[in-house]
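sorry for the late reply, my laptop died twice this morning and i had to redo everyting from scratch. anyway the thing you sent over, i finally got around to it. pasting the sequence first so we're on the same page, its 133 residues, then the predicted structure underneath. double check i copied it right bc i was rushing
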Amino acid sequence: LIGLSLTLLVSCGGEPILKKWKLDDINIDALLKEMPKESQEMMRQGAKENMAKTKGKVTLEFKEGGVFTAENPSMDGTSTKENGKWKLSEDKKTLTAEIKGDEQIFVVRELSGDKMILEPKDQKMQLIFIPKN
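ok and here's the structure:
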């Protein structure tokens, strides 16, 4: 689920987004509120384990001309790289990403030189990225 979301990211414009970002955290608090209490701890633990495996390894690099590269670690220890197109809305509140014809829309919760928070439109989670040095 998270890998698919990250793979489908895209943007446009030309300011703080034009750099290489790495996944730093995932906030699932809103998602947990909608789940039955008995499922919340299992989901929280699964997210924590997933974050431990992917923190700093999932990267997005947004480039001029509306192209980006997404890199995701695989279960076998390798990683996959995919290229796509991105577009940032004029008000900078919506990011549309497309890879191989699959499009996903993200609400931009924050975009600055040192942090990018994206929320997949149809999912109750936030993907928190910081610049990759």
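The radius of gyration is 14 Å.
thats about all i looked at so far, will dig more tmrw
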